[in-house]
Design brief:
Shape: elongated
Number of domains: 2
Structural class: alpha+beta
Amino acid sequence: MLYLRMVGSDPEKLCAIEDPLYVLRQRNGVIVRHPYGKRVQGVLSPDGNEIWQFSDRESLGESYAVVEKITMAEYDLWYALQNQPEEPDPEDTDPVIPEDTEPETVMTRAQLTEKVGELDEALNLLLSGVTE
């Protein structure tokens, strides 16, 4: 799964692509599909009608939308915020602490989301060292 944020879009647009098809521009200028590697410069949109270039790679040209890779936690948080109910959940600010539980071990939803994001970033950092 590949999670992307459209750079410069307003409102913010994020996308999750289950089986991404990567592309790169060959020396003769032709853009071709390519298996994932350090040389890929972009990805096809989910519908296959557009080419999106990665913000941290060599440009494919000015006519392509720019995307940046994000973590699954960032995508999930964005998705949750987009589908948030109108009324705030009291558990967000004042969670119910079950009996036999130390109050210090209970987190609000915001604290839990932040902690999951930190752990996801640490995991991605560790995995990037393994895959490169």
